[in-house]
């Protein structure tokens, strides 16, 4: 197992929902043992809220030059990477002992790019669980302008791990 991702593979379910999410993102962007390419994009994301009722998380994202393509707009790969991680945080809103408590990996991440998000723009990112079962989960993510115009939409299909029984 890679270092620095304990909150992802083994979330502390005794923490309040918002603290679970902050622990996951904190381990990714602050870990001295991890410097993956997702770090720079996630550093531009600010956690806003989480809802167990809506099974969702909300974020603000500032588009920086480092996240942009040569046209000065959010790069598709950067958008997909950010959505990959942030949609996964929505699953923490429904995790409980024996359910979504041992991590998950992407099976597919389908992104649709609807309008550009230029450098300097502040965006909202909304993520919500569509469905979750013992083996798979589906999460939706949207990057939108602050006035609600959708820039990027994704459907994220996840394979769910089970804790080993000893």
CATH superfamily: Hotdog Thioesterase
List the domain count as a whole number. Answer: 1
What is the mean pLDDT? 91
Compute the CA-based radius of gyration: 15 Å
Low-confidence stretches: none
The gist of it:
The chain is an alpha+beta fold and 166 residues long. It contains 4 helices and 6 strands; from the N terminus they run αααββαββββ. Residues 72-151 form the Thioesterase domain.
Describe it for me?
- It is a single chain.
- This protein has 166 residues and is α+β, with helices and mostly antiparallel strands.
- It has one domain: Hotdog Thioesterase (Thiol Ester Dehydrase, Chain A, Roll).
- The protein has helices spanning 6-9, 17-30, 38-42, 76-91, and strands spanning 45-51, 56-62, 104-113, 122-132, 136-145, 150-160.
- Strands 1-2-4-5-6-3 form a 6-stranded antiparallel beta sheet.
- A hairpin with a 4-residue loop joins strand 1 (45-51) and strand 2 (56-62).
- It starts with 5 loop residues before the first helix and ends in a 6-residue tail after the last strand.
- The relative contact order is 0.18.
């Amino acid at each position: 197992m890679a270092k620095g991702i304990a909150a992802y593979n083994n979330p502390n379910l005794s923490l309040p929902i918002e603290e679970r999410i902050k622990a996951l993102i904190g381990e990714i962007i602050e870990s001295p043992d991890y410097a993956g390419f997702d770090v720079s994009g996630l550093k531009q994301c600010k956690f806003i809220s989480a809802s167990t009722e809506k099974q969702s998380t909300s974020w603000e994202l500032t588009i920086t030059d480092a996240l942009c393509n040569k046209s000065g707009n959010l790069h598709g790969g950067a958008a997909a990477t950010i959505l990959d991680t942030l949609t996964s945080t929505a699953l923490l809103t429904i995790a409980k002992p024996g359910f979504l408590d041992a991590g998950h990996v992407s099976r597919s991440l389908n992104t649709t790019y609807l309008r550009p998000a230029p450098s300097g723009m502040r965006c909202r990112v909304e993520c919500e669980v569509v469905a979750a079962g013992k083996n798979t989960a589906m999460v939706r993510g949207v990057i939108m302008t602050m006035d609600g115009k959708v820039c990027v939409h994704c459907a994220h299909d996840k394979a769910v791990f089970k804790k080993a029984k000893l």
